[in-house]
Write a structure and sequence with these properties.
Number of helices: 16
Structural class: alpha/beta
Helix content: 40-55%
Bound molecules: NADP nicotinamide-adenine-dinucleotide phosphate
Length: 391
């Protein structure tokens, strides 16, 4: 815990607690937070917050704080009350920056669920330096994007020899449904191709050069991957960038590290159908009326039912190689988009608030900020990390 934030009123403040993932996260914290945790739910609607608090009462009832992203002063107050501020208020490109700025200024640890690469790159350029001055840790993508991939690649690297070039390929399989908030964020991303690339280039100009080591995450080519018995389609999500940043930060990834990220699909027709569907969605997202129509299909605050979530699952298989060794590992869990995202998000907030972690600051990945401590927490909470074979 930084000395600067030790006297804050709350260990954790959960902003956006009344949304779909926010409510699941609040329920998780109420059920699993250790006794004595000082925490609060925050949002823009006093009525919704009060109803949420009443539902949680009897377990570990949180305090209630009101703040609105259209009122920057309310966000500064929120940041000033918390040691760790976890926010689900997205799309982050639209709603997120003021809170990142407030946390960077106040030395408050910040977590979000943003898989929006443009947002994360802009926040690096604009707020990383200030957060390093104040000691704040800014951790983006603390849900299914990108924790199983970031921690899973790190777990795989740890099974391989040190000080040698390493390659890791990750293959994601998942079955689940989407909420209104996620759909809105995804459509927004698809419409912003050139701005996304510009933000990535600008970040590249600001990032210090890596001296004497290499860490890359190139987009792989589609292929049949016999090591996992499935068609592998390159996934241009934020996950590979996060893995690359962890590899840049930690010597343990060796002198020359390469990560490739794929969706694993059982059959060729299914693979081709997936590519066509994503292509159609990207094309539609470029046309404003089509984008508006699509985003009206699922409203904010809505998401899959508990019954549907219970049938959802994910598996990420990793194949790592280096120094004459080859390792197969796997990270598995339940509903990736919501149940497990809320669990991962809540455990990340608890880890930042309570665990004895390496000293880091500025924009950091989940591996840099929490690493082994978060793997231990997720394992205890039912997300499995295992070595399937070592050769
Ligand atoms: N990384 C992952 O794997 C992952 C998984 C799931 C979701 N996500 C992301 O998480 C975010 C939330 O998703 P969701 O499905 O929970 O969305 P949601 O149900 O629409 O929730 C959004 C939250 O933002 C709040 N909000 C909106 N405008 C606000 C304002 N002006 N001031 C304060 N609060 C405001 C809403 O408050 P009200 O309740 O008052 O409307 C609600 O609490 C999305 O960006 C989504 O992409 C990421």
């Amino acid at each position: 815990m930084s000395r600067q934030t030790a006297d804050r009123a709350y260990d954790i403040v959960l902003f956006g607690a009344t949304g779909f993932v926010g409510t699941l996260t609040a329920e998780y914290l109420a059920a699993r937070a250790p006794q004595g945790l000082r925490w609060a739910v925050a949002g823009r609607s006093a009525g919704k917050l009060e109803r949420l608090r009443e539902r949680l009462a009897g377990t570990s009832a949180p305090a209630v704080l009101q703040a609105d992203v259209s009122d920057p002063e309310s966000l500064r107050e929120l940041a000033g009350h918390a040691r760790v501020l976890a926010t689900t208020v997205g799309p982050y490109l639209e709603y997120g920056e003021e809170l990142v700025a407030a946390c960077a200024d106040a030395g408050t640890d910040y977590l979000d669920l943003s898989g929006e690469t443009e947002f994360v790159d802009l926040m690096y350029v604009r707020h990383d330096a200030r957060a390093r001055e104040t000691g704040a840790r800014l951790v983006h993508a603390c849900g299914f994007d990108s924790v199983p991939h970031d921690l899973g690649a790190y777990f795989t690297v740890r099974q391989l020899p040190e000080g040698v070039p390493l390659t890791v390929d990750g293959y994601v399989r998942a079955q689940g449904m989407i909420s209104g908030g996620t759909f809105a964020s995804a459509l927004g991303q698809m419409a912003r191709g050139p701005r996304l690339l510009a933000a990535a280039r600008d970040r590249g100009r600001h990032e210090p050069r890596l001296l004497g080591r290499r860490a890359q995450a190139p987009l792989g080519a589609p292929r049949f991957a016999k090591e996992v018995g499935a068609w592998a389609l390159p996934l241009p999500t934020i996950d590979a960038q996060v893995v690359r940043r962890s590899a840049r930060a930690l010597e343990r990834y060796g002198p020359d590290f390469r990560y490739r990220h794929y969706a694993a699909v059982e059959t060729l027709p299914f693979a081709l159908g997936g590519v066509a569907a994503v292509g159609a969605l990207i094309a539609a997202a470029q046309v404003p009326p089509a984008r508006r129509w699509l985003s009206g299909r699922i409203s904010p605050g809505q998401g899959p039912s508990a019954e549907k979530r219970a049938k959802s699952w994910f598996s990420v298989r990793f194949v790592g190689e280096g120094g004459g060794r080859r390792v197969f590992t796997e990270v598995t869990g339940g509903d990736p988009g919501y149940g497990e995202t809320a669990k991962i998000f809540a455990e990340s907030a608890l880890s930042l608030a309570l665990d004895d972690l390496p000293r880091t600051s500025g924009q950091v990945t989940t591996v840099e900020a929490m690493g082994d401590a978060l793997i231990d927490r997720l394992r205890a909470a039912g997300i499995d990390f295992r070595v399937a074979a070592l050769r």
